[in-house]
Amino acid sequence: MLKQLASVLGIVLVFGWFAAQTPASADEAAPSVSLKSTSNGNEITVVVTGEHLKDLYAYDFTLKYDTQKLAYKSAILSKNGFSVDPIVQNGNVRIAHTKVGGIAGDNGTLQLAAVKFARLQKGSAAISLHDVKLVDSKLNAAGTAIQAAISVKDEAPSGQVALKDIGGHWAKTAIEQAVQQGWVTGYANGTFLPDKEVTRIEFAAMLIRALGADGGRQPVTFTDAKQIPAWGLPSVEEAVGRGIMNGYGDGSFGPAKKITRAEMAAMAVRSLPSAEPAGGGKPAAFADSGQIPAWAKPYAETAAQRGIMNGRSGGQFAPRAHATRAEAVVVILALLQQK
Fold first, then answer.
1. Which of the two ends of the chain, N or C, has the fewest CB atoms closer than 10 A to its terminal CB?
2. Which residues are CB-contacts of 48 (< 8 A; sequence separation ≥ 6)?
3. Which residues lie closer than 8 Å to 264 by C-beta, 6 or more apart?
4. Roughly what angle, to the nearest 10 degrees, separates helices 172-181 and 325-338?
5. Is there a contact between 58 and 13 (Cβ–Cβ < 8 Å)?
6. Which of 108-117, 126-135, 154-163, 181-190 is the least confident region?
């Protein structure tokens, strides 16, 4: 059944693109497509709406967005018909949908899709609509020269950051500074959760947002690459391409795994200029230095020598402990000062 539906969609979206378009009469409004955005904390929803539609049977369009400021999360299309999974690549989201069978198309106004993005950085971000193909039930093009664009406004407050759960926290000043710089954010309910443990993909995203992309991004081939969420994939590809991050011995990346303090030290030191050696100075005097894995010792020592990372209570480095959001922020801020 799925193969049959795919074949129908293929006929509509290939044959229909090249069918002759019937021009609208002088007193008949031409089909149009508009964009409208709404925000809920750091989640942006872009609604794509068709207007003045005439017998709309299938449609195909592409949304372009700024990958430095936004990350694709999901898309909701009509359940009445068959939709191809959105194709997300290099800041483009391609969406296609068709009705199935010998039925009439839709008329008037219709929501074509609701596409959700995560805000990665402060500042307005452009989203634009391209390559719109509208096809009627007779497989004729029903409007193909349609484009639209919007700018998602920066709704982040200026001045002091108001997060309701960092008062009195040891990292309060650092957290506020990081949020104001725009490479980390709080949650929609006004919290930051400073003691929440950080996953590998979350730390990669924070680090690359703070450092900025330098064109070192490359496709990843981890055995669990399909499990890397779309919102974090560009950061992972950048971190791997620049040699900041790598996978495990079994070929996996483990995006949902909690990052350890040893891993965080390694990523931070690898982010320093290439001439920066790992270790080589006076070994850091941690009470649990014997528990630091051999591969991580040079990184832990360099991070401590450069003031990028400090130990936890009792003079311990705690290499296998999971890093918290607060610790990640402090480490990245210290790293930025080094650079």
1. N
2. 33, 34, 35, 61, 63, 95, 111, 112, 113, 114, 115, 129
3. 203, 309, 323, 327, 328, 331
4. 70
5. yes
6. 154-163
